[in-house]
Amino acid sequence: MLVNLVFNIFYLFSFLAIVLIGLPLLDGLISYTLAKNLKGYMVNNFSFKSQYWLGGLGVIIHELGHAAFAVIFGHKITQIKLLNFHPEDGSLGSVGSMYNRKSRYQTLGSFFIGLGPLFSGLLVCWLLLEFLCHPIYTAIPLDEVKQLGPTNFINFIMQITTTWLGNFTTAFLNAGIVNQLILIILIGMISSTVFSLSSEDLHSSYTGLPSFFMVIAVLSVIGGILETISLSFHLFIGRILLLIAALWLILLILIFLCLLISLVEMWLGSLILRIR
Q1: Angle at 11 between CA 5 and CA 16, to 5 degrees
Q2: What is the CB-side half-sphere exposure of residue 97 using CA atoms within 13 A?
């Protein structure tokens, strides 16, 4: 009984750490790298000010993402610049905040504040997709998950990912040409800056890691005890983790697609300017 309990706690802690911390940070690091190169391409082919007229809307959404999570986790916002037209340090916008470092909740918030633009950017892109394309989502048959081994996890995550991405693709293809163009143009403009995490954003997320690991450890102990007692709870937790893991994979693919759209738009713009 004790050995089974320890195994369940360790197993749950590992999966929670991967799904709740590892995957979000992976998305953040990849977004940081891709968007940094994209901004460099934009500045080199146009100008520094092009970040405002091509990506100004994305900067505003980026900073609002930081600010929203700062409010949720009780940080005191000291200053906010949605668009900084005279940047001394090169920053297009900024959100300054203060928090009680003795508060685990507020320290935990640093993790989400740093990654906030990923959520705000994808939320806006999803709202645009909803408004312009009206996707219909296929129900995910979670009840079919009877075992929670690593192979089953990977297979089912891929099934969820391909199903939902298929829903998005079908909705886009069925939308009118006008709606398609509006969606592509807006997503391209927003993505050029909204997913551009700075090194300071990533550092903010790192400062929240110790508190997040403590939260996961507590949840693992509670969940491990309940899993030992109830098989149905074990399956319930596994299904929730499946959905979250699939969500982060979908978000990563969507971020990549959004940045690709933005890159294509900039390439076409630079090509037109050179022709002229």
Answers
A1: 125
A2: 28
- Among the listed residues 210, 255, 219, the one whose alpha carbon sits nearest the alpha carbon of residue 107: 210
The string of DSSP letters for 36-62 reads HHHHHHHHHHS-TTHHHHTTHHHHHHH
| Confidence (pLDDT) at 93 | 77
> Which amino acid, 107?
T
Q: Please list the alpha-helical segments (H only) found in the chain.
A: 2-16, 23-45, 50-53, 56-72, 104-114, 116-133, 150-174, 177-194, 199-207, 209-229, 231-275
How many Cα atoms within 13 Å fall on the side-chain side of residue 265? Answer: 22
Distance separating alpha carbons of residues 119 and 125, to the nearest angstrom: 10
pLDDT of residue 81: 84
pLDDT in tens, 245-260: 777 877 888 888 888 8
Q: Please state the pTM of the whole predicted model.
A: 0.82
Q: pLDDT, tens digit, for every residue of 35-44?
A: 777 777 777 7
